[in-house]
Design brief:
- By secondary structure, this protein is an all-alpha fold.
- The chain has a single domain, classed as 434 Repressor (Amino-terminal Domain) (Orthogonal Bundle), CATH 1.10.260.40.
- It has 7 helices and 2 strands, in the order ββααααααα.
- A hairpin with a 3-residue loop joins β1 and β2.
- The protein is globular, with a radius of gyration of 16 Å.
- The protein starts with 7 loop residues before the first strand and ends with a helix.
């Protein structure tokens, strides 16, 4: 598996990491299996999903076997055809109905703040609206997952 990284690449792409991140928790094991499961749920071939993600079929196969991890640009493309990113990345289904409207606003504001902080530290990069939105979705899902875990830990005490 490729080494993990916390940095986003120039051109609006970022690597999803299955290793240690600045946010503590990582993408749970089984990313590739969940990606394959979602592809099959949507009745797509590896080639069709690869095309939606802007990659070649071989790269799709490597994602599904855990040999490598995809870029944010890929994740954005496959999400547009119905892949459940929350499930694939974080092994969580559902839309966060357990959150209050205030919690959702707080999480989204923090995700936007993190995104803007990152982009401002990368003046040489040109992040388009699609790339920024994909990064925002990723950050929002990660923060929502962390809020859910914190809620579970708090209720167990």
């Amino acid at each position: 598996m490729h080494s993990s990284t916390n940095s986003l690449e120039a051109g609006g792409s970022a690597r999803a990491v299955a290793g240690e991140t600045g946010w503590g928790r990582t993408i749970p094991d089984g990313f590739g299996a969940r990606l394959r499961e979602e592809r099959k749920r949507l009745q797509l071939s590896q080639t069709k999903l690869a095309i939606a993600g802007g990659i070649k079929r071989l790269a799709q196969s490597q994602y599904e076997t855990g040999i490598s991890m995809p870029s944010v640009r890929y994740l954005q493309g496959v999400a547009q055809i119905g892949i459940d990113l929350k499930y694939v990345l974080f092994d969580r289904r559902g839309d966060g109905d357990w959150l209050s409207a205030a919690d959702v606003r707080r999480i989204e504001a923090r995700a936007f703040e993190l995104l803007e902080d990152f982009v401002s530290t990368q003046p040489e990069a040109n992040y388009g609206a699609e790339g920024r939105f994909a990064m925002f979705q990723f950050l929002r899902a990660k923060l929502t997952d962390e809020a859910r875990l914190k809620s579970i830990e708090t209720s167990a005490e």
